[in-house]
What we know:
By secondary structure, this protein is of the alpha+beta class. Helices cover 35% and strands 14% of the residues. The strands form three sheets. It has a two-stranded antiparallel ribbon with strand order 1-2. The chain is globular, with a radius of gyration of 18 Å.
Amino acid sequence: MNLLDEPDDHAIGRSRGGLTTKIHALVDGNMRPLVLLLGPGQGGDSPMFENLMGALQVERVGPGRPRTRPDRAMADKAYSSKAIRAYLRGRGIECVIPEKDDQKANRKRKGSAGGRPVTYDKDAYKRRNVVERSFNTIKQWRSLATRYDKLALTYRSAAVLHAVVIWSTLLGDTP
């Protein structure tokens, strides 16, 4: 698991709702976190996408460079943009992201100049719930769910510790 370093002294962002921050994550098919990044609570999800993909490194069993390109990227409609689709297409990654309703309406309004409808594997998209279930396990940690920490460094440390606990269950000799 390779995580991006963040500055040590950043406090958790303030918004109208109080102290907030978002955990942005890439997980594998078994709900195990591969990349964890923090973003401001009032910030959008899609600006973090390329940072998440850039931080992805999965070590190989044998020799060779770490794998940095998954077979497919599954995400919800928050990540539906032309830029993200172009990024994935340029890297040869299958895009399994549905189109937002307003994007559909804009495309249809433009007629034939609006381009073709977005296609994605609907059966594969049904398995996207793995990400949601992974976040539900994070919410089981009280300090992560309630954001007790005042510094982003300590909050991210708790998220990384949670990821280590999840990955350590693979050892088999732990309870």
